[in-house]
Amino acid sequence: xxxxxxxxIRDGVELARDVVHGxxxxxxxxxxxxxxxxxxxxxxxxxxxxxxxIHDALGEAIEVAEPLTPETRDKVHRATANALSAAGTGLxxxxxxxxxxxxxxxxxxTAMVEDLLDCPDAALxxxxxxxxxxxxxxxxxxxxxxxxxxxxRAWSTDGWTDYRGRRRHDRxxxxxxxxxxxxxxxxxxxxxxxxxxxxxxxxxxxxEMTVMKIHPVAGAELLRPADLSPLALSVxxxxxxxxxxxxxxxxxxxxxxxxxxxxxxxxxxxDAITSERVYKPAAPPHVGVRIIREGSGGQFCPxxxxxxxxxxxxxxxxxxxxxxxxxxxxxxxxxxxxxxxxVVRVMSGEGFAEVxxxxxxxRESVTA
Length: 368
Ligand SMILES: [Fe+2]
Hints:
Elements: E1 2-5, E2 14-15, H1 40-46, E3 51-55, H2 70-93, H3 99-118, H4 135-158, E4 160-161, E5 167-168, H5 172-184, H6 195-198, H7 206-212, H8 215-222, H9 230-238, H10 259-274, H11 285-294, H12 302-311, E6 320-322, E7 328-333, E8 343-348, E9 351-356
Antiparallel strand pairs: 1-3, 2-3, 4-5, 6-7, 7-8, 8-9
Fe (ii) ion (FE2) is lined by residues 187, 215, 239-240.
């Protein structure tokens, strides 16, 4: 199977996975196996579905693992939708987010951690949560998956440092659950930002930016009655802080920023760049990866970026890419040690060939 932009749907293409879109419990918009017509090339992007998995000869026998099981996805979908609506009510009444909603999210974070501890490192479908119709909702879940994958890699490789400065390798799951909960609610304060600012196409004015920048503090305030752990709360409050001091709300610098928000910052920015929005198409993964790599040591923690590079491939398996020579191909495999040199399936004569391509080079290099 392979993933194509919904804008590239042509008559007769066969869907490889259901397209589920809408509130929890909604029946799939389209079922796996159905053949699409070209009109879906405008219908699906208009509905916010930026890409679809299809079956065709070019994508044959390419397998892509999903980080979450369908059961967990469904559970996450429901709990996050309920929590967002409870948070909206809590904001309007001034009562804050009810602790029951946060407890439900903590259960969901536990289910996500269990799935993610089991899943393989590479060849993961990280861009496949089109079923979440609301951007803040979808973004929260995608950032959680990505942040947890980075954390798993980082803490299982290097361990983590406790408040006494000791390097530790225990309590990995417990930390992941706390991080997961923080990531699920990291942008809940955006409910306090007027939608016309939140969804404004293009640059915000200085005044609008000032309003936008309240969301980390508004989120922490909204969560006050829920008694979140300080670690989870640090994600909400500090995910826009930057290592070089250029972030907000406090302009914290380097060591003042804890591990959790350092991971959240990378996952958050990568997902924002690679997500479809009403006013912009999704940037391809290699653009997101390049921006994160360029920010290493400046905006982003270099250690987090190093682990991000082992989790997020610039040319993910199943994605269609344009080769340096202009040909179009589908990524069939990628080696984590050579992320910029995927094995790509391309048309060749009557059939296909698989070639290893250096995407940073002017000319492709072919291996046997
Ligand atoms: Fe945010």
